[in-house]
């Protein structure tokens, strides 16, 4: 009887939380619409020769007097609304999406990104992953957009089949992961690296993607009479497959691929369920030579990706310049 009552009470909690979240989303949507309309109004008026800074200042005083409890209607805030409208007014898709995230996250994206493509990327990230302000700030600071785009063409075929690119971000295994949050010393072992990742699992999942669910460390698989241990094992909900991570503190070596192939074969035979996709492997190294990786992977159909990690945030300007360079090369080749 008590169990039945508890079940009913849980249903009540679910009902309340669902309605509360829906109400918050509706309020947020209306607030963003207000800022959008206000930005449009200011944009059109400022472009009129009769409007200038003095009239904007009078408007600020009017808002203070008539709506003293409303936040954001300061001089900088009003011009931010103007910028908000002018930035997205010609992009119908983005102007719809931005109403699904908070104003603070909208402001962060507006002020901390450059291209409209980068802005749309982070807006979609916020929608998909329900980012807090801190999480969004970290992703932008780590140059996630640029690292994602620089991984273009390197995504695993099985991942591409499982999830379309319209569902980005977090549908690619990145070429470079930023693990600056591990705070490791200059000298560390693979055991130290693994321990640091486990101690900072929330930040690690933020980096690799919130669709990942942690399964375990030193995950034991048995073949014949021998036991083998996978460094880290995850399950990816979007890809519907197990994902094995092997951690290396040195440079990529070709023999790492055969070891990962063995793990994936074992997972598929012993752990994979009928409704799941084949397991995927990620060899995470301190660095790698792209040509060595190419040769090592050229004769295998293994669903394995080789990524490198950095323990310090990469300079965003370097990432931007590298992305521009690659984009220019692609455009030049297309013109030929």
Percent of residues in beta strands? 5-15%
The end-to-end distance, rounded to whole angstroms, is 76 Å
| Sheet with most strands: strand arrangement | 1-6-5-4-3-2
Provide a count of the helices: 14
Instruction: Give start-end ranges of low-pLDDT stretches.
Output: 158-165
Backbone structural class? alpha/beta
Number of strands: 6
SSE string, helices as H and strands as E? HHHHHHHHHEHHEEEHEHEH
Form type? elongated
Short description:
By secondary structure, the protein is α/β, with parallel strands linked by helices. The chain is built from 14 helices and six strands.
Helices and strands in order:
Blueprint: H1 2-46, H2 53-66, H3 75-88, H4 92-97, H5 103-112, H6 116-129, H7 133-141, H8 144-150, H9 157-162, E1 176-178, H10 190-199, H11 201-208, E2 212-223, E3 226-236, E4 241-247, H12 255-270, E5 280-285, H13 290-297, E6 304-310, H14 316-335
Parallel strand pairs: 1-6, 4-5, 5-6
Antiparallel strand pairs: 2-3, 3-4
Helix pairs in contact: 1-3, 5-6, 5-7, 8-14, 10-11
Can you tell me about this structure?
With 336 residues, this protein is an alpha/beta fold. The protein has helices at residues 2-46, 53-66, 75-88, 92-97, 103-112, 116-129, 133-141, 144-150, 157-162, 190-199, 201-208, 255-270, 290-297, 316-335; strands spanning 176-178, 212-223, 226-236, 241-247, 280-285, 304-310. A 6-stranded mixed beta sheet has the order 1-6-5-4-3-2, sandwiched between helices.
């Amino acid at each position: 009887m008590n169990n039945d009552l508890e079940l009913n009470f849980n249903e009540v909690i679910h009902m309340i939380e669902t309605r509360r979240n829906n109400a918050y989303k509706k309020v947020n949507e209306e607030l963003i619409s207000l800022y959008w309309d206000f930005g449009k109004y200011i944009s059109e008026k400022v472009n009129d020769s009769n409007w200038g800074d003095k009239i904007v200042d009078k408007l600020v005083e009017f808002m203070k007097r008539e709506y003293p409890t409303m936040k954001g209607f300061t001089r900088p805030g009003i011009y931010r609304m103007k910028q908000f409208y002018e930035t997205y007014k010609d992009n119908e898709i983005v102007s719809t999406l931005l109403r699904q995230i908070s104003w603070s996250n909208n402001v962060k994206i507006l002020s901390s990104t450059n291209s409209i493509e980068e802005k749309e990327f982070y807006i979609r990230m916020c929608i998909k992953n329900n980012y807090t302000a801190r999480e969004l700030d970290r992703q932008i600071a780590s140059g996630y957009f640029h690292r994602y785009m620089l991984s273009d063409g390197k995504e695993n075929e099985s991942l591409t089949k499982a999830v379309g690119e319209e569902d980005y971000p977090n549908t690619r295994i990145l070429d470079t992961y930023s693990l600056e949050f591990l705070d490791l010393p200059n000298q560390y072992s693979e055991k130290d690296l693994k321990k640091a990742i486990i101690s900072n699992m929330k930040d690690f999942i933020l980096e690799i993607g919130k669709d990942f669910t942690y399964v375990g460390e030193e995950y034991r698989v048995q073949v014949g009479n021998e036991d083998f241990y996978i460094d880290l094992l995850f399950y990816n909900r979007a890809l519907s497959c197990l994902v094995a991570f092997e951690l290396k503190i040195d440079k990529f070596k070709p023999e790492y691929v055969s070891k990962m192939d063995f793990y994936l074969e074992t997972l598929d035979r012993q752990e994979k369920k009928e409704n799941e996709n084949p397991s995927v492997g990620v060899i995470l190294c301190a660095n790698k030579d792209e040509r060595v990786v190419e040769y090592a992977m050229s004769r295998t159909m293994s669903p394995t990706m080789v990524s490198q990690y950095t323990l310090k945030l990469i300079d965003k300007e370097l990432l931007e310049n590298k992305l521009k360079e690659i984009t220019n090369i692609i455009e030049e080749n297309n013109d030929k």
